[in-house]
Structure formats: structure tokens, C-alpha cells
Design goal:
Number of domains: 1
Helix content: 10-25%
Strand order of the largest sheet: 2-3-4-1-5-8-7-6
CATH superfamily: 2,3-Dihydroxybiphenyl 1,2-Dioxygenase, domain 1
Structural class: alpha+beta
CATH class: Alpha Beta
Radius of gyration: 16 Å
Order of helices and strands: EHEEEEHEEE
Number of helices: 2
CATH topology: 2,3-Dihydroxybiphenyl 1,2-Dioxygenase, domain 1
Amino acid sequence: MVKSAMGHMQVFIDAKNVEFYKNLFKFLEWTVLYEDKASVSVGDKNGFSLWFDPLIKDKENDYDGIGMNHLALAVFSQKDVDETVLWLRNKGIPTLYNTPCHRPDFADGPDYTYYQVMFESPDRILFEVVYTGLFEK
């Protein structure tokens, strides 16, 4: 069993609806982390964030269209990511984008890391399991 927690979720939206998301999450007492005319990101008190960004492709059932891009699950060690990779392999689920791998370009500074695995669920939902060094066991 691997401990995990929510990390972040990116959702592509029609930019004309950005105010709806901003207002909804302000009402729910989330913090606005970033905003412009086309996008907004919000975070909860536990560090989970939602990113509502303008769609890249006007296409249904596509990671870059309206809807969820990927769901990231934060784990507590690099070993947890590697254990997830083994579990995926045992289920016959391939990893994507040359993962698992370190992504220093995504790390939150020199004291952190970004080690990830990406995969699709059977329903083509894109998932990321990631260790960043931000959580302790």
C-alpha cells in the first residue's frame, strides 16, 4: 500500500468562463494563486490546487480540450513512485512520456525534486503520481 494525497489538477476551460471558477472558489474560501483574463488557479489550505486554463484544442475527449488534463497524486517518497510503477506493470498498464523520471525543470526550488510517473487509466483519464519532497511521512 502506498500513501498518497491530492497534488494538483489542471482543467482546460473556455476562457469566457474564468470568472465563474474564480468566484466559485472564492465563495468556497479557496485562495486565488494566479489569475489573468483567460485563467485562474486556486489552492486549498492543504496545498491542493486547481488550475483552470484556456483550452488548447477545441476537441472533446482530448487531454488538451475542455475538461481535465490530468489528475496528480502526491506521494511521500521516490520509492512510492517506483512502487506505483511496479504495480502498473503488474496490471499491464504502460507508463507514458518516458516516465518514471526526474523533472528538475518542474521542481519548486533547489531543495525539492520532481519525480513522476504518468499513465492512462482504462478510460483514458491521464494520471500522474509524483514525489516532490514537499510532504513527509
